[in-house]
Amino acid sequence: MKNIILIGMPGCGKTTIGIELSKRLGLSFFDCDAEIIRAQGKPVSQIFEEYGEQYFRHLESETIQKLPTNDYVISTGGGAVEKSENIDALRKNGTVVFINRPVDRISEDIDTSNRPLLKNDASKLAALYERRINLYKSACHIEIENIGTFDDILQKIINEVKING
Ligand code: S3P
Fold it and tell me: Does ligand 1 lie within 6 Å of residue 79's CB atom?
């Protein structure tokens, strides 16, 4: 089966949804941030602190260029769409699904202290969403609004991928 690639804001549910989706579809799961953490042997926040965002973006692009080709659900970091070469690679690699969760819901859900770009300041989320929303919308093949129950979202993705994937 073609890969299913999840994009969207930090805290929109990509990893949680991706893990469960992969189980339901009998696919493997790959998390781009987890791969960077594994390869570097340190958390993303530490990579940002020690080497800066540009270096993290370089690692992120390298990871995206080397993604597995089939039979995976892939969760990307929220900033993966910031580079057009990443978007091209993701679209070639599978069906790109934008998990669109309203910012106020994300703020209720997440702890911003370990998210380098939010730095304990949830108000930064809204600015980031505004800056990225058009990128997410143009990068995706399918957009799913994440406002229902967990089960609803999974079912919506499975149905849409069957029709449009
Ligand atoms: C980032 C999102 C993070 C992580 C890094 C940068 C971003 O991933 O890749 O902190 O630019 O939005 P999540 O979207 O999984 O939180």
Answer: yes
